[in-house]
Specification:
The complex is a heterodimer. By secondary structure, chain A is an all-alpha fold. Chain A is 79% helix and 0% strand. The two termini of chain A are 43 Å apart. The chains are: A mainly alpha, B mainly alpha.
């Protein structure tokens, strides 16, 4: 048992893991913010475009959502980090992870917002337009507020998944919680740092997973 | 433009590395053949246990599921693959990956199947029981056929996630598609194998994404 909880090794691993918590949280929050913003913008564009010349834009957005749903996030991250430099695009590990996680979350967020928007009754659009609101105003003041209510539980779940996926960044040498633990583990040949890291992830994400479950039952989305 | 093709879609490099990539693809397929049926099996067990257990048991199981879900899959994978040997258990790499990812994905399959079971009206239970069917027969002949059908799109969606998850195996040195693409990239000092691997993942999973849409699946599954 001692090998799993060696206090000396745990003490040696803690400073690195503690600094890793900041990196994990920073990466999680920034890519969640970027992904949700990207999804909202794309869904808005898709909802507001009309007329023949712009029709393909909606198809492109749907195609983007499909492609990034089919692509494993780690494959995307590895391509961004290891292949993009050949095109002269040198991303740091953190930036590559931020872009990869943001693009993946952006695709699912777009889907979620789009599903919310299309679930709002057509009559709401018509009523809003007939009171003299412009399309943009009708969207922003009438349709979107009703759509967003429906998006909260699935969006929360995707955001949590994105937070957990920050652990992938350890693969491209971002000093996050997992990366810090793995490097101490390599030096000490002890599993203790990994268990400490696992405890940190549990403390960070268990409350969020519980909240996500509560939101799902609360809003009855199943 | 031709320089771009030379770099990223170099056919010669792709042809030379195709052997490696195919070997990697086969390992990826093997991992899927462990993780998807394994996840379904344990998920089914989990959902039945949650359905049949007394209230406190169901609550305990749901906490257990959430604890597993709180770990990033990669952390679970690293824990199993690098942690088990310290307990004197050294499974072959493919099996280690299979165990870790099955643990993760079975919690999702389990919750989906449970939602399917819960989607069936209690009156169906009562009617079936009143005809003399036992609990097991009611589940098998009445509840599960309808319940599973109700959540078919979500099951397909989680299968997509499970297949994507197998790319993590490359991190613990399993020679899967992604790993072999990195090896080939190192050999040729050219990113074309990586691009080819990404395209292979797309070719593998795009039809599944379309199928899920056809089934009317939710775009997004729980975390």
């Amino acid at each position: 048992m001692r090998i799993f909880f060696d206090p000396e090794i745990l003490a040696a691993a803690w400073p690195g893991i503690r600094s890793g918590i900041g990196v994990t949280l920073g990466l999680a929050l920034s890519s969640i913010a970027a992904g949700v913003a990207l999804g909202l913008v794309l869904a808005t564009v898709r909802a507001l475009i009309r007329g023949a010349p712009l029709r393909p834009v909606g198809g492109l957005i749907a195609g983007y959502a499909d492609v990034f749903r089919a692509m494993p996030p780690l494959v995307l991250l590895v391509v961004l980090y290891f292949a993009a430099p050949f095109a002269g695009i040198e991303l740091s590990g953190f930036m590559a992870a931020f872009v990869a996680l943001g693009l993946v979350l952006g695709a699912s967020a777009e889907e979620i917002f789009w599903a919310g928007i299309t679930s709002v009754n057509r009559g709401q659009w018509e009523a809003a337009l007939s009171t003299g609101l412009s399309r943009g105003e009708a969207f922003r003041r009438v349709v979107l507020p009703q759509a967003v209510r429906l998006t909260i539980p699935p969006l929360t779940n995707r955001a949590i998944a994105t937070g957990k996926n920050t652990a992938l960044a350890s693969v491209v040498a971002v000093p996050d919680v997992l990366n810090q633990a793995a490097s101490v583990q390599a030096q000490t040949a002890s599993p203790a740092p990994l268990l400490l890291a696992a405890g940190v992830y549990l403390a960070l994400f268990l409350p969020l997973v519980r909240i996500g479950r509560w939101l799902e039952t609360r809003f009855h989305i199943r | 433009m031709s320089e771009f093709f030379q770099t990223f879609l170099n056919l010669e490099v792709m042809r030379e590395s195709s052997g490696l990539l195919l070997r990697g693809l086969w390992v990826t397929v093997q991992a899927c053949l462990i993780v998807v049926p394994g996840g379904l099996l344990f998920g089914a067990g989990l959902s039945l246990a949650q359905t049949l257990a007394p209230a406190w048991g169901t609550r305990a199981l749901s906490w257990g599921v959430d604890v597993v879900r709180a770990f990033p899959p990669l952390v679970l994978l690293v824990l199993v693959v690098h942690g088990l040997p310290f307990l004197g258990i050294e499974p072959p790499p493919l099996l280690g990956v299979g165990i870790a990812l099955t643990i993760n994905t079975s919690t999702y399959y389990g919750e989906i199947l449970r939602a399917g079971i819960l989607s069936i009206e209690p009156t169906q239970w009562e009617a079936a029981r009143s005809t003399g069917l036992g609990t097991a027969a009611t589940l098998r002949h009445v509840i599960l056929p309808q319940g599973v059908r109700n959540v078919l799109p979500d099951l397909a969606g989680n299968t997509l996630e499970a297949v994507k998850l197998t790319s993590l195996a490359s991190v613990v040195a399993l020679p899967d598609l992604l790993r072999m693409a990195r090896v080939a990239q190192g050999v040729h000092f050219n990113p074309s194998p990586l691009i080819l691997a990404a395209l292979l993942y797309l070719a593998l999973l795009w039809p599944l994404v379309r199928l899920i849409r056809r089934l009317g699946g939710r775009a997004v599954l729980p975390a």
